[in-house]
Each structure stands twice: as C-alpha cells, then as structure tokens.
Specification:
Blueprint (H helix, E strand, L loop, with lengths): L15 H15 L3 H8 L4 H10 L8 E5 L5 H9 L4 E6 L2 H10 L5 E5 L12 E7 L8 H11 E12 L5 H23 L3 H12 L3 H10 L2 E9 L4 E8 L1
C-alpha cells in the first residue's frame, strides 16, 4: 500500500470539507501517473471523449474559457487550440496536477490557477465557456459548484461537462459500482500500490445524483440542457448547458 496515501474514500466523501481534503490528497498522489491511468481505465477512449466535449461547443471568435478540475491540462489545451483568439484558464485544487499542466503547456493563451470548485475566483458573468472533465462528481458541494458556474458564466455563454453517469435504476447503479470499483481499483493497485487510488471513482458515485436528479439540479440553478450524449455503454456522459 502507498506510504503516502491510506485514506478510505468511503469515510471522507459525505461532508464537503472532508471531501475537499480527500480530493487534494488523492489527486496529489494520483498526479504523476494520472494520464496513464485515465487511458488504461477508459480503454484508450478518454481522449476521444474530451475531444467530443470541446467539439460540442459553439464557434466563438475570442471567448474567455474556464476549465474546472483541469488536472494535467488536456481539455484546457483542446480549448486553446479550438479558440486561438481566446484565453483559457485551467483551475484545479491539486498543486501537483497544476505543476504537470504547466510543464506540458505549449500555448500562450493558457494559464493555470489553484482554486476551489465551490468558490470560483472569477467575477460574475466573466466566462463565455466553462468546461469540466470529471469536475462535477469531484465537487465538494455539487449544488454550490453548479451555482458558481451559473454565476461566472455570461448570459449567452455555454457550459459543458464530461463525467461518469449514474443510472436511475438501483440494480444498474449497483452493477456499475462493482465494475468500477474492481477495474479502477486494479489500476490504483498496479500504479500506486493501493486500490483506494482510482477506486475512489466508484465511491464518489455513491454520493453523486443519478441522471434525472442531476438534470433537476441544473434546472434549479438556472440551466437548460441543450445536448446530452453517453459513451461507453452509458458509464460516462457529456452534457451541454446554457443559462435559461
């Protein structure tokens, strides 16, 4: 087992403050091998899903873009390529993730900042595009994060999120939990010496709303769902939102 990481996800995800602490420690441990892990866990499909996320965004000449939970920078770099006249800020809680993203960056219109999903360090209406890959599920308080996205998004802006998708029916949720706990935990064991790394994905879905409840949270916070897609037999999904 990892000498640096012994936290059990199940004991840390039910209270926003504890989940924030867990995420910071978890992703600090995961950062050095995170890109490899995401490729392996998704059977090489993760990059295609992220490309689909950015392709779903509208054509804009010079947008202000914010990528939440940016990790090592994949989506931020895709945004910079899609919008060469725009500016892109990647936001993440984990300093090791941000260090890797900065090292990888070859774009003059991208910067990376440390910040909290529940308290975005940006003015009201300042972003034309907000994105996140696996951001919403990792939010310490999902409703606060969705409200913050609505706050920083301009009236004509767009938000798009890629994440694991929770089925409405309990038997399917239980099956998905078992599959993800085993498969993702295996990669945590192989790459970090503990299934708690990446096995966290399955545990986080215990607290994450199913698809219908998630749509309800979007509506409650002033969003309309304009596009929805599912990948990988519905295990992951893409949603595009616009302020209502």
């Amino acid at each position: 087992m990892s000498e640096r990481f012994r936290l059990k996800a199940r004991d840390w995800l039910d209270v926003p403050g504890r989940k924030r602490i867990y995420n910071e420690r978890h992703f600090a441990e995961a950062a050095p091998r995170y890109d490899l892990a995401t490729r392996m866990m998704s059977f090489g499909r993760d990059a295609a899903w992220k490309r689909a996320l950015v392709a779903a965004l509208p054509d804009l000449p010079s947008p202000v873009c914010l990528d939440l939970a940016c990790g090592t920078g994949d989506v931020a770099f895709l945004l910079a390529g899609r919008y060469p006249g725009g500016v892109v800020t990647g936001l993440d809680l984990s300093p090791p993730m941000l260090a890797i993203a900065r090292e990888r960056s070859r774009f003059a219109n991208v910067r990376f900042e440390r910040g909290d999903l529940c308290d975005l360090p940006f003015p009201d209406g300042s972003a034309d595009v907000v994105t996140g890959s696996y951001a919403l599920r990792n939010a310490p308080d999902l409703r606060k994060t969705v409200a913050e996205v609505h706050r920083v998004l301009s009236p004509g802006g767009v938000a798009a999120f890629l994440d694991f998708s929770n089925p409405e029916r309990s038997p399917l949720r239980n099956l998905q939990y078992l599959l993800l706990r085993g498969w993702c935990g295996l990669w945590g064991l192989l790459l970090h010496g503990t299934p708690e790394i990446h096995g966290y994905i399955a545990e986080s879905l215990r607290e994450f709303p199913d698809r219908n409840r998630l749509r309800g949270i979007f509506r409650e916070n002033g969003f309309e769902v304009s596009t929805e897609r599912r990948f990988f037999l519905g295990i992951t999904g893409l949603v595009v939102l616009r302020p209502g």
